[in-house]
Amino acid sequence: MAAWIKRAGLQGSEYLFPSRMRASPHLSTRRYARIVERWVTSIGLDPSIYGTHTLRRTKATMIYKRTKNLRALQLLLGHTKLGSTVRYLGIEVDDALEMAEQMEV
After folding, report:
1. What is the rounded average pLDDT of the residues 48-73?
2. Gap between the Cα atoms of 88 and 61, Å rounded
3. I need a labelling partner for 44 at 20 to 30 A (CA). Which of 5, 70, 82, 97 fits?
4. Which of 19, 24, 23, 22 is nearest to 34 (CA)?
5. pTM for the whole structure
6. What are the phi and psi torsion angles at 50 (to 5°)?
């Protein structure tokens, strides 16, 4: 499971979403997908449209709209290139480059 799932500041193998299985200290990707599918279904949405990646992308989009901070999003998403983050968010390249040039790193 991705490092982001580890709870910050905890020792060793403590995870925010621990597994009930002894073989793994954290939820599997598949288990997480099943949980999200149940949540989506329980509120009357189509689980074939909404999933784990939808949640990730929605959160990134919300952060971008609020902050316009592409560099922070690049780091949060684990992208090595700013261009990947721009494409991921679906924003205009010219706008993204202008904002990137204005940022102090």
Report:
1. 88
2. 9
3. 5
4. 19
5. 0.57
6. -115, 130
